[in-house]
From TrEMBL:
Keywords: Endoplasmic reticulum, Membrane, Transmembrane, Transmembrane helix. This is Derlin. Its main location: endoplasmic reticulum. GO terms for biological process: response to stress. Belongs to the derlin family. May be involved in the degradation of misfolded endoplasmic reticulum (ER) luminal proteins. InterPro entries: DER1, Rhomboid-like_sf. The chain crosses the membrane at residues 19-38, 96-117, 123-142, 154-174, 180-199. It is found in: Endoplasmic reticulum membrane. It is a multi-pass membrane protein.
Length: 244
């Protein structure tokens, strides 16, 4: 069993494996009081005034308690992040990383802007960890890329992948969780899907083209050694004069 888990872990693509490992270690570390969640959550004042920049990233790594909800989100992360990286973004690790960066930036912007709106600031102030939202964004993007795949929910009923986000939101509500966290992921996922797929087909323009600095961080294409150029030797000179 342990060997099978190890093989499954090693076969994960690099970005999925790195994010899953960081998320599990961070959440377990907080549960064991090795790390304090108060040092990880998104706090605009601490980021801007005390330059605690790491909070912009660490709030995407903590998945709160080690409960059923945590297991579900780890499953979503391991499955749909892996499927996206292996299929839609196959040999495009830079583009996949840029998608996650776009999602994290978009979600952070929503929370920060929402915190400035009167009568809504208190509600947006509750979104101090956006890890669940980023995970749900991956689920939404995968469902838009594979809308006709047939799925089954706990063996109770079947549906196509296009309805997967809404089925999961309904299940989350039944478990007593707030739907707003997942809905933020839907909004971020739809923004990426529109700008990355729909808008380019409409206009021929790609606003989400991966920057070259990110592309330089990943080497997706196999390195092919250049063959030495064929050396041709000149043929010996031939006397044009007719033989005598």
């Amino acid at each position: 069993m342990a060997q099978a888990v190890e093989e499954w872990y090693k076969q994960m693509p690099i970005i999925t494996r790195s994010y899953l490992t960081a998320a599990i270690l961070t959440t377990i570390g907080c549960s064991l009081d090795i790390i304090s969640p108060y040092d990880l959550y998104l706090n605009p004042k601490l980021v801007l005034k005390q330059y605690q920049i790491w909070r912009i990233m660490t709030n995407f790594l903590y998945f709160r308690k080690l409960d059923l909800d945590f297991l579900f989100h780890m499953f979503f992360l391991a499955r749909y992040c892996k499927l996206l990286e292996e299929n839609t973004f196959r040999r495009k690790s830079a583009d996949f990383f840029y998608m996650l960066l776009f999602g994290a930036t978009f979600l952070t912007g929503i929370v920060l802007l929402g915190g400035m709106i009167p009568y809504f600031s208190a509600s947006f102030a509750k979104f101090i960890f956006l890890s669940n939202s980023l995970t749900f964004m991956m689920v939404y993007v995968w469902s838009k890329q594979n809308p006709f795949i047939h799925m089954s929910f706990l063996g109770l009923f079947t549906f196509t992948a296009a309805y997967l986000p809404w089925v999961l939101i309904g299940f989350s509500v039944l478990l007593g969780s707030s739907a707003w966290v997942d809905l933020l992921g839907v909004i971020a996922g739809h923004a990426y899907y529109f700008l990355g797929d729909v808008y380019p087909r409409m206009t021929g323009r790609r606003p989400l083209r991966t920057p070259s600095i990110i592309q330089s961080l990943f080497a997706d294409e196999p390195v092919v050694a250049a063959r030495p150029a064929a050396v041709r030797f000149a043929a010996p000179a031939v006397d044009d004069a007719p033989p005598r």
